[in-house]
Amino acid sequence: MLLATSGLALAQSSDANVAPAAANKQAREIAQGDPARWYKEDATAGQRMRSRQKEIAAALDEARHACRRARKPGAPPA
């Protein structure tokens, strides 16, 4: 579990690992300000599980993008 957690931390340490389409979407969302849902606590176990699954999926996306980027010849290290 600790190894998986440290892997997630590494994947999230740089925005360079975010796909360009996702980065553009993030920039638009940031420009609009914080969504109200960020300040609403997950009250049920189901809500917490969905939030965790969403965070895990985002971290996996970033890690996959970093791997693809690292495999390209002449690509800068992530």
Description:
It is flat, with a radius of gyration of 15 Å. With 78 residues, it is an all-alpha fold. The protein has three helices and no strands. It is 63% helix and 0% strand. The protein has helices at 2-11, 20-31, 45-71. The longest helix has 27 residues, at 45-71.
Keywords:
about 80 residues, mainly alpha
> Residue share in helices?
55-70%
Q: List the uncertain runs.
A: 1-6, 8-12
Care to count the β-strands?
A: 0
What does the overall shape look like?
flat
User: What is the count of helical runs?
Assistant: 3
What is the H/E string? HHH
Which radius of gyration do the C-alpha atoms yield? 15 Å
Percent strand:
under 5%
**What is the mean pLDDT?**
79
Distance between the termini: 23 Å
Q: Give the structural class.
A: mainly alpha
Q: For the report, how would you describe the main beta sheet? A: none
Summed up, what is this model?
The protein is mainly α and 78 residues long. The chain contains three helices and no strands.
